[in-house]
Amino acid sequence: MFKKFQPSADVSGQVSVKSSVQRNIRASILSQWNINPETFEQIWPKKEPLTLVKCREHISIYTLHGEPLFFQHFDGPFFPTLRLLHKYPSILPMVRVDRGAIRFLLAGAHMMCPGFTSAGGSLPPADAALPPNTPVAIHAEGKEHAAGIGLTKLGTEEIRKVNKGVGVETVTYLGDDLWKIQQL
Which residues does the UniProt record annotate as the domain PUA (predicted)? Predict the structure, then answer.
């Protein structure tokens, strides 16, 4: 999604978000992410104005004082930026790929099922299984912080059973053009 993102060419405009829309966004994020309201208040204080940065391909980046906090594609789920995820690692459920998948993840490839089911990979246990189309933090074997953020294409139990094909669609990853942006 952010492989060839150039703010000078891909940003079509910036708009302050109305307070009624901000309340809806806040409620939506609190229902989607595993975050308590106090922590979310630290990330985005209620009285602080949010700016919507409209980009190509129907991508919306929401910024606070120019710093990108989260983004959305069309009317899909809200994703935190990797910088925000590194500050608050428990926001999204975690999956882990083995060492062999790291170079593909850092190149922006989607993560295949065998990367999660092999010795170095891991998925949530069966009692905490994730359904398809769930935003997840993609960690790499042996690394402390998330290396990417993705959207599950299959449920985690289905990834274990099928063990073939794309398991998680990569949305953003370390080193992509969204990662390189400090301020918009």
Answer: 93-175
